[in-house]
Amino acid sequence: MAVSRRDWLRGSAVLAGMMASPTLTVAAPGVETVEIWPGGVGPGSKGVPLQQRLVERSQDPSKPDRYMEGITRPYLTIHRPAKPDGRALMITPGGGYQRVVVDKEGGELAPILTAAGITIFILTYRLPGEAPQHGPMVALQDAQRAIRLIRHRARAWAINPETVGIMGFSAGGHVAASLGTRFDEAVYDPVDAADKLSARPARLALIYPVIDMGDSAHTGSRDRLLGPNPSADEIDRYSADRAVTGRTPPTFQLHAADDNAVPVENSLLFNAACRKAGVEAEMHIYPRGGHGFGHGARIAADNPLRRWPELFLEWYGRG
């Protein structure tokens, strides 16, 4: 069934103490978690001296704004609908490649999407500093592995493996765009049968995404991903728009023109690349909304951007 806010908050509070188990764990009614790597620890994270913990940064109990940091054991949080229709969507929240948020770009959106019959998988992925041996590749490793694992266990989760898409917010949008353009790239050594499956998402949704590592970059994300002085080759390789091909999945894009953190040019660049490659891409740009508006409920009631999940569901239903 769809998960209430109370259940989601209670389930997430338990997560910080659950990371030692690699098996599927019930966190709250309708919410489950599963670590994505055999043994739990991701490639290159073994022995990294970090404490995986959930942090609350909101002073308003009615508006939680929590994030996970110190991630060495990446995991999926699974929200199952009361009436699954076989579709599945993996979400990669933002956090500037410094943290992974869990509420407004993750758990709060899940009830809206599960109500439409979609099974939701929220990926808490590792960050560049949490696997120094692999650096900027680590989040893509987790994204590839996670979508393959979802497909491998599709029958258990009552989904059609061919429908698995990805939605990413902010820096999580860079993770999603990287998966949508580099799904065939070998970024880790295969570990089991799941890794024989495709990592290409069926559909791609980018919500105020980090795309560019050049002139339009979100400098915080770029610095944490590539360091303060990236080379021209690194900028080119990690600017997701430059990797778009005709095999990039159909794409939904959403951005506010007054975003002062991640300039709207990031979405414009990706959309231009999609059009050039012949990729179906639907883009919505709103004049107001800023950055980090999440699923929309925190936006002013008179701002039409508040209703963006309806646009997404209409688009997703065409797939």
Distance between the first and last residues' Cα: 24 Å
How are the strands of the biggest sheet laid out side by side? 1-2-5-8-6-9-10-11-12
Based on CA inertia axes, which overall geometry fits?
globular
In helices, the fraction of residues equals 25-40%
Tell me about the largest β-sheet.
9 strands, mixed
Structural class, please?
A: alpha/beta
Strand content: 15-25%
Poorly predicted runs: 1-27
Number of helical regions: 9
Radius of gyration: 18 Å
For the secondary structure, the number of strands is 12
Give the ordered list of helices and strands: HEEEEEEEHHEHEHEHHEHEH
Mean pLDDT: 89
Describe this structure in words.
With 319 residues, the chain is an alpha/beta fold. It has 9 helices and 12 strands. Strand 1 and strand 2 (31-35) form a beta hairpin. Residues 1-27 have low confidence and may be disordered.
